[in-house]
Amino acid sequence: MSPQKVAIVTGANKGLGFAIVKKLCSKYEGLVYLTARNENRGVQAIEELKKSNLHPTFHKLDVSYQRSISDFAEHIRNKQIEILINNAGILFLKDAKEPLCYQAEQTILINFFGLVNFCETVIPYVKNGGKIVNISSSSGHLSRLPSEELRNKFSSEDLTLDELKELMQSYVEAVKRGDDLKDTWGDSSYVVSKVGVNAYTFNLHRRLSPKGITVNCVHPGYVISDMTRGVGNVTPEDAAEVPLKLALQPEGSGLFVWHNGTPVPWDGPDPRGYIDGKS
Ligand SMILES: NC(=O)c1ccc[n+]([C@@H]2O[C@H](COP(=O)([O-])OP(=O)(O)OC[C@H]3O[C@@H](n4cnc5c(N)ncnc54)[C@H](OP(=O)(O)O)[C@@H]3O)[C@@H](O)[C@H]2O)c1
């Protein structure tokens, strides 16, 4: 008997992840995993979907704990991953009271290292021809880093995963030292985390393309969710459409796709200008 085919979404108890699971339940034929770091919130999300006669499977997964990642990997080891959507993420808004070094540590830990560690752990179970979608942001565009030297390092095709991890850790250390980062990394840990996610996406694409596995990252738009305290210009349901397309029928791999479905050059001009009309 061939192994059961599954789709996995991280951070799916609410917001964009929840909306993606909801759509996957009606469009994908295999088993859909709704994962969440908090068991109660995950089970509540499952109950909510039951009301629409949708039945994803719940499993607890906190991407910032290797133990949680390993538990999940053990759970799916006899299954085949056809779709993996790395959605879990956090953002400290500008008025956050937490110290900057804590914000940097947590943001890079969850948004970058969590995504990378989870993905690397489950890659052995991803089916040839599988699809990996990393939920990035407009903040993940390379132009958001002030330093040309850093931009060159991040976008180098020779950058190994170990070097990328070291680069990301060096940012956290720089924040902890209290370095002036205005002309180098800039003032947003979220930007650094998502630039890291994009660099990882392209690294993974290069490594997995021989297996026909597509790896793309997407800016989902300004999504109305708890992350933005309910502000935004697109509902999670509408924002889920482009990530869903990349999970079901991608038109390529190694792409950074904007919320309107257009692949954008990562090292080109900021698409917020020429697509969203922001000056
Ligand atoms: N909203 C936007 O405008 C926007 C724009 C661009 C990109 N994005 C990206 O879209 C993704 C989804 O964001 P959203 O707007 O839907 O935000 P959200 O409503 O705050 O949802 C974030 C999800 O991630 C989960 N999460 C946080 N830390 C986690 C961890 N360590 N392990 C597992 N799950 C964790 C949260 O769980 P809890 O409920 O337990 O906290 C929640 O389920 C994020 O990657 C975000 O960066 C959002």
What is the structural class? alpha/beta
Task: Supply the number of helical segments.
Answer: 10
- H and E string: EHEHEHEHEHHHEHHEH
Instruction: Name every ligand kind in the structure.
Output: NADP nicotinamide-adenine-dinucleotide phosphate
The whole-angstrom Rg is: 18 Å
Name the beta content range: 5-15%
InterPro entries: NAD(P)-bd_dom_sf (IPR036291), SDR_fam (IPR002347)
GO molecular function: carbonyl reductase (NADPH) activity
Family: Belongs to the short-chain dehydrogenases/reductases (SDR) family.
Keywords: NADP, Oxidoreductase
List keywords for this structure.
alpha/beta, single chain, seven-stranded parallel β-sheet, 14% strand, binds NADP nicotinamide-adenine-dinucleotide phosphate, Rossmann fold, 279 residues, 7 strands, 10 helices
List the helices and strands and how they pair.
Layout: E1 5-9, H1 15-27, E2 31-36, H2 39-50, E3 57-60, H3 66-75, E4 80-86, H4 100-122, E5 126-135, H5 148-155, H6 161-177, H7 189-208, E6 214-218, H8 236-239, H9 241-248, E7 256-257, H10 271-274
Parallel strand pairs: 1-2, 1-4, 2-3, 4-5, 5-6, 6-7
Bound molecules: NADP nicotinamide-adenine-dinucleotide phosphate (NAP).
